[in-house]
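Just scan my protein:

——
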Amino acid sequence: MTPSTSSAITLNINGEKYTLPVDHRTTLLDALREHLDLTGSKKGCDLGQCGACTVLLDGRRAVSCLQLAVAAEGRAITTIEGVADGERLHPVQQAFLDLDGYQCGYCTPGQICSAIAVLEEHAAGWPSAATDDVRPEAGVPALSAEEIRERMSGNLCRCGAYVSIVQAVAQAAEVQGKKAVA
């Protein structure tokens, strides 16, 4: 008997369950875009290098072009379509609008999902390569522009809106009550 190369899977996306048949080789990005018409996550490089397809898996950022859809079953997936609270934008989305943290907008969904995770990682005290003092007793470092740039470095913007992106992440951190000094 030949093993099956496809399965019906159930994905928990933005709080809703979707059951769909997929080839085992289908990436999460392709399942979102091609099977479920959730086109906010963008296909940029399809190599996991640009971050345009970034989504949140159980609250952690992941490039969905490298994640198999079958491996995401049973995990909480949040796409850009699910970060707002109804008509109320997430503070990161609002900051991107307020400070023009986008130009063409292609990378923006991935940038926003990544920034949401960055703020949570920082608040939890996770150090980055830019963190001066990584000792636990040093506490959570200030979220400087250097920290933001390092933490967001997996997301590329071909238009070069980096200055505004850093400012938007810092503003969102302030709104959410996290330490920021960008």
